[in-house]
Amino acid sequence: MMRDVLQSVEGISLYPIISMIIFVLFFAILIIWMIKVDKNYIKKMSNLPLEKEDENGIINTGELNEK
């Protein structure tokens, strides 16, 4: 039954093509972003789960702030 309904829709063959184009574009854009992004940003984001917050909600990165 479902097969008959889908076959009766005009242009149904375009849906798999459009889906594949969206899928490939998403990952191509993601790869381009990965290449262009600042490496320090990646390092900072990868360390976020390991950082601890103090009682005031301030994140302690473990680095000494020199003034």
Description:
There is one protein chain. The chain has helices spanning 2-8, 14-36, 39-47, and strands spanning 52-53, 59-60. By secondary structure, it is mainly α. It has a two-stranded antiparallel ribbon with strand order 1-2. Strand 1 (52-53) and strand 2 form a beta hairpin. The chain is elongated and about 60 Å long. The termini are far apart.
| Average pLDDT | 80
Order of adjacent strands in the largest pleated sheet: 1-2
Strand content: 5-15%
Contiguous low-pLDDT stretches (5 residues minimum) are none
The main β sheet shows up as: 2 strands, antiparallel
Structural class: mainly alpha
Q: Count all strands and give the number.
A: 2
The percent of residues in helical segments reads 55-70%
Radius of gyration (CA) equals: 24 Å
